[in-house]
Amino acid sequence: MQTPQTSFIRAFKDNYIWTLSSGPQTVVVDPGDAKPVLNWLKQNKRKLAGILLTHKHNDHTGGVAGLLAKFSVPVYGGANERIDSVTQPVAGGDTITLDALGGLEISVLDVPGHTLGHVAYYVPSQKWLFCGDLLFGAGCGRIFEGTAAQMYDSLQKIAALPDDTLIFCGHEYTLPNLKFAAAVEPENPAIEARVKESLAKRQKYLPTLPSTLAEEKATNPFLRADQETVMERMVALGRTADKTPLGAFTAVRTWKDDFVG
Ligand code: ZN
Ligand code: FE
Fold first, then answer.
1. pTM above 0.85?
2. Per the residue annotation, which of 30, 55, 110, 118 is the catalytic one?
3. Which residues have a beta carbon within 5 Å of ligand 1, which is an ion?
4. Which helix or strand (DSSP H or E) is residue 193 part of?
5. Domain limits, the chain
6. Is 171 a catalytic residue?
7. Closest ligand to 144 CA?
8. Could you confirm whether 14 is annotated as catalytic?
9. Separation of 182 CA from ligand 2 center, angstroms?
10. Is 228 helix (H, G, I), strand (E, B) or coil?
């Protein structure tokens, strides 16, 4: 089997459409727009072999019809998300085998919270996680449909993956998220270091992603709600009286919803 490779295609203001390729065959994740994908395929002399969807929002699915007009390929998506264009509904615990990518295996994780049917795709052989709007660099998705407890549980599933897992998120939000992370933990030196690193990348117009799970565990307030410092600070700021990981997580998520950096 050829070693699979990943790359990214920019879409809209800050979306990334991630690609998985083996030789000329490519599978794309969350094509919100068809045009940049078609251009990329042409430029890189690749053929589309499949589409993976993490959730139903238009900035992640809007390009599917345009791609299916040119390529007849399977479309994977969460069974509970009910996306019309999905031909292969999948659910947590399923394994997808991508024959076009040399039999590459992908594990499906149910990660409700941002939407109720949100799924994430984990490639165990490469330790790659494609997580849509569940987790961002130093942040997490807004809770549109689920509860804070559901989002917390979903993030715990990610936290249980190997520390060197590469995290491929749907949006470039790392720098603004780090501003908030620093407000939650003003004394965390890892956050400061990540700001410097991310600024350097953004100045060269490079993505700050993928990150590693270890990096997220060190800097992402939504993966640090179980830290004594974070729980204590949420109580000290009067944002919750519930000094538990879920209490702190809920307080951090609510704070972020109207945080102006
Ligand atoms: Zn979304
Ligand atoms: Fe999105």
1. yes
2. 55
3. 57, 133
4. helix 189-203
5. 5-258
6. yes
7. 1
8. no
9. 23
10. helix
The rounded average pLDDT for each run of 10 residues, N- to C-terminus, in the chain (261 residues) is 91 98 98 98 98 98 98 98 97 98 98 98 98 98 98 98 98 98 98 98 98 98 98 98 98 96 74
Fold of the domain built from segment(s) 5-258: Metallo-beta-lactamase; Chain A (3.60.15)
Query: What is the rounded CA–CA span in Å between residue 134 and residue 112?
Result: 8
Supply the pLDDT for residue 20.
98
Res 63: pLDDT = 98
Instruction: Report phi then psi at 216, rounded to 5.
Output: -65, -40
114 is catalytic: yes
Return the closest-CA partner of residue 74 out of 51, 100, 54, 102: 51
What is the model's pLDDT at position 121?
99
- Establish whether 258 is a catalytic residue: no
Per the annotation, the verdict on 118 as an active-site residue is no
Q: 189 CA to middle of ligand 1, Å?
A: 30
Cβ–Cβ under 8 Å, residues 41 and 48 = yes
